[in-house]
Amino acid sequence: MKRFSLIAALLLVSGTAMADEGMWMIHALNQALEKKMQERGLQLSAGEIYNADAPGATVSDAIVSLGFYCTASVISDQGLLITNHHCAYSDLSDLSTPEKNYLEDGYWAFFRQDEIPLRGKEVFFLKRVLDVTDEVAALKDSLQRAGAPFGSRRLSSLMERKYAARTGLEASLDVMWAGEKYYLALYQKFTDIRLVGAPPVSLAAFGGDEDNWEWPQHKADFALYRIYDHGEPLASPWHLKISESGYREGDYAMVIGYPGRTDRYSSSFKVDYLERVERPVTNRLRGRQMEIVRKWMDVDPDIRMKYSDWFFSLSNVQEMQEGEVQCFKRFHVVDEKRALEKDLPPDILKGLADEYAAIEDIEREKAYYRETLVRGMRITPTMLRMSNAKDAETREEMYRRGLAEVDPRVEKDLIAYSLEEYFGHLPGDVIGRRQDSLRRAFSGDYKALAEHLWDHPLELMDFITEVKITAFNAREHHTGDLTELTRAYTRALYKDRAEKGLVQYPDANSTMRLTYGVVSSLEPWDAVYTSWYSTPRGLYEKYDPLQHDFALPQDFVAALSRYDGPVNFLTDNDITGGNSGSPVLNARGELIGLAFDGNKESLASDASYTPDYNKCVCVDIRYVLWILRDYVRLERILKELE
To answer: How far is CA 271 from CA 178, 328, 334, in A?
Structure first.
């Protein structure tokens, strides 16, 4: 098996990016990449995809960031946006009330005046990317000579202010390869964003967390927003053309979006640490928390409405990281990383080995603290805000608002579980004195202690914040600087690859990227083959009106017989979080679907791309259009889409 892992690792860094690996910077589509994409079937030039000197005339001009957490596309000349339903999940949850539950029932603005303004929503259009590496180096040198601060925050602040003042645009300094390169991205920002439509969660998230990261899936994962400018729909000169002509296995597919974060320059030591130390703790705790919340959500619709957004985030991360550990082991990612490190400086490797060995115990303890008292209850953010309140009246108001967002039954169960794990896995010198006193007073009866803390919110506040202030300071005993060692490792790996003439791309960091590949099937295990698309038949097969995640509206079940096209499909595009909502484009740059998920076999991709296993799960645009046309009958939007 080790011989196989070494071969796979060497193939991974070969000059021909296996299975179209790569999240390529949109402004850096050189002739070599253009040629590779055209060999795969692309019918456009690189300049037709991105060209800062031809604004409003390229594909990338129609693709936006939703607050740098998701991606969306302009699909009409009136600022209409399409993205994933799960990108709109928090908005729908915030807007919902027991009388109007937009998550469960969906929402459609049949008239322009019904489009709902959203507080705090921001959309960013990329206008230009500048290489400012030399300028940043000169600025850093001048600050250092003057004895002024010259850290990354200071550099970013000065550069962003300078370019924002010069251009009138939003400016963001992005660091690539731990400082080997600096790029300045300029954006046009819009803040008047309104909800146009979203299907009920039963359609959008059909299969729930059980189907999450799985294939096949059958989700209508889409939502519609609109950008307004000075109170009127944005007159958008460039928007994506929608294709209803379909695709076949092997057809070219391209995804452009804002992937949030990858760590493919991570060391073997970090992957080993995640696999053995941190992830087993967080995955187990979050899995049990999901069971607690799901139990209550299944018996009370009001609890489901209050906790759906929190549970959605919890389940998505837990299942992703659980699959990540499985893939680290299955695809021998630690061995792969070690093969890449054979030519790196020994002092860096030894420093990382020593550092990770030194922090292992304390980081495991931090994980237990973080996943219990800090993140293990939904009431915790309220308690932390209360601890910083200026006076009792403010604290009381914070508590009142926080209490309205939760259910006492759920919170007490979460608190009891958090107490059990916290006291069961943290050493005595970390546990606070007041915490230990309460544990002794209740003789380790965590359920009774949870009831007591809930009935005495100020005690709960003190209990949570005691460790936050005092717990781990005395236990830090690092042998070196892990952050600087990690930077040195990244720079060394970058230079090693550059000296070998290997084409490389930086880790994702919420900047616009392009990934190309083809529509493709999946063979997840030996002797197992799955098709490249799913159909309505799968909806019928999974349908169960007694299970919330597999129930469907009755009128939708009746209408579904009128649709016989693909529901979801697979490509081998290289994506990660932040790509949600990204357009999936054909060889002509036309919209054929939306990226919304990866597959379970791809979950090592934060650290390592696995050829033939990494897949992008997409909703077919024809399924979206059928829902709008045949099920919802949203005629004004269909007319707008021509």
So the answer is: 18, 8, 6
Q: Which residues contact 559 (CB under 8 A, 6 or more apart)?
A: 630, 631
pLDDT tens for each residue of 377-423: 999 999 999 999 999 999 999 999 999 999 999 999 999 999 999 99
Handedness of CA 371, 376, 382, 388 (dihedral sign): negative
pLDDT tens readout for residues 41-50 = 999 999 999 9
Question: What is the four-CA torsion angle of 278, 279, 285, 291, rounded to 10 degrees?
Answer: 170
Torsion angle of the four alpha carbons 374, 375, 377, 381, in this order, in degrees rounded to the nearest 10: 70
Amino acid identity at 175? V
Look at the pTM and tell me if it is higher than 0.85: yes
Q: Maximum distance among all alpha carbons in the chain?
A: 73
Per-residue burial over 599-612, b if 16 or more Cβ lie within 10 Å, else e, is bbbbbbbbbbbbee
**Domain boundaries along the sequence of the chain:** 45-217+224-233, 268-475
To 10 degrees, what angle do helices 279-297 and 408-425 make? 160
Q: Closest Cα partner for 248 from 7, 422, 541, 41?
A: 41
For the record, the structure tokens of 175 come out as: 């660091």
DSSP designation for 530: B
**Could you tell me the two tokens for 254?**
């391209």
End-to-end CA distance of the chain: 55
